[in-house]
Amino acid sequence: MKFLKTFALYASAFAVSFAAGFSLDLVMSRDTSMTARNWSDEIGTVSRDFAYGDQAAQKFDLYLPADKSRAHYGLVVYLHAGGFTAGDKTDDTEILKWFAAQGYVGAGIGYTLLSEQNPTASVKSMSDEIKTAMPIVVAKAKELGYPIDKMAVGGGSAGHGLAAIYAFRDGKTAPVPIAFTFGMVGPTSFEMDGAPTEPSAEAAAMLSALSGEAISVEMLKSGDYQDKIKPIEAYRWVDENSVPTLAAFGALDKVMPFSTKPFQTALAAHNVPHDVIIFEKSGHGMHRDKDKQKLYVAKLNEYLAKYMPVKGG
Predict the structure, then answer these.
(1) Which of 7, 43, 184, 190 counts the most CB atoms within 10 A of its CB?
(2) What is the pLDDT of residue 203?
(3) CATH code: domain of residue 11
(4) DSSP β-ladder status, 44-51 and 178-184
(5) Do 269 and 242 contact (CB within 8 A), yes or no?
(6) Quick one: pLDDT at residue 4?
(7) Can you give the residue range of the structural domain that contains 109?
(8) For residues 88 and 82, what is the distance between their CA atoms, to the nearest angstrom?
(9) Residue 2 lies inside a defined structural domain of this protein
(10) Would you state the pLDDT for residue 28?
(11) Which stretches make up the BD-FAE-like domain (predicted)?
């Protein structure tokens, strides 16, 4: 059994992951076609800060295509990066405009980050916020004249992790069918390659912070912690009914260096349609594999066309 690295090392990784994850989205919009050039009201509009709860971060933005003539629309939710401690729903404006320019309703959803002001926030609480937000996002889109019949959910880094949790853990309760899920460098597991083999107080503390549950060294030794972290490990919710999946990871990722193998193994074992792209030269920011960037965008377009095509009126 492999355990997390020390609390200090992992917390340090969180501290830098916002910059890496944010630059990830910039790379994807700048170096590929994932940008809505010449954005104007003739292409789409942005409506911001609809509330789905009482907390400051519990708001979402909608990116609405100009064409309001269709009977139904596909919704693309993209969740922001930031290592669960930083970032904002507006960080993905360019990517969400790109989806709207193609005829989809785009949504960026905020969630309460772990901070000194919110010390009890956890990956579990953030994932529960996303689950709460989804039906409200769909209802608001309909209210504005965009009835939703399908959705795709994705994100970068921490946002990808949350998107995967929603798709695999909560997909059966989604307000409309999930067509597919996608994302880059997101945590689908919290047990790292290269971690100390001996359970430690630091590992227990980190898992406690991530899961929102009290986890002790004794629980790590006995394996009793596994039920407590299951809600935040997306790969453990994969089954034969899981949705098609597109994912990308950096082979040299030092920010979140856990293996993709459990995720890939689960997808394959349950015959889930999937593509997992490894950026062999890249770390968490995914900068160094231009060919893989283009492949990822090409695959994303394939998934959109196959699983959630834009239909006529």
Answers:
(1) 184
(2) 82
(3) 3.40.50.1820
(4) unpaired
(5) no
(6) 44
(7) 7-307
(8) 8
(9) no
(10) 55
(11) 61-259
How distant, in Å, are the alpha carbons of 123, 135, 248, 258 from that of 187? 10, 24, 11, 8
User: d(Cα 286, Cα 34) in Å, to the nearest integer?
Assistant: 15
Q: What is the pLDDT of residue 200?
A: 83
pTM across the whole model = 0.91
Count: domains in the chain: 1
- Give the per-residue pLDDT at 259: 58
For each successive 10 residues of the chain (313 residues), what is the average pLDDT? 42 44 49 72 97 97 96 97 92 95 97 92 97 98 98 95 98 97 91 62 86 93 93 97 95 70 93 94 84 93 97 70
Burial class (CB in 10 A: 0-12, 13-18, 19+), 18: buried
62 contacts 47 by C-beta, under 8 angstroms: yes
Reduce the secondary structure of the chain to three states and give it as a string: CCCCCCHHHHHHHHHHHHHHHHHHHHHHHHCCCCCCCCCCCCCEEEEEEEECCCCCCCEEEEEEECCCCCCCEEEEEEECCCCCCCCCHHHHHHHHHHHHHCCCEEEEECCCCCCCCCCCCCHHHHHHHHHHHHHHHHHHHHHCCCCEEEEEEEEECHHHHHHHHHHHHCHHHCCCCEEEEEEECCCCCCCCCCCCCCCCHHHHHHHHHHHCCCCCHHHHHHCCCHHHHHHHCHHHHCCCCCCCEEEEEECCCCCCCCCCHHHHHHHHHCCCCEEEEEECCCCCCCCCCHHHHHHHHHHHHHHHHHHCCCCCC
Q: Does some domain include residue 33? A: yes
Residue 194: both structure tokens together: 């290269």
Length of the chain: 313
**Structural tokens at position 48:** 């911001």
Identify whether 312 is part of a domain. Answer: no
- Name 155's bridge partners: 79, 183
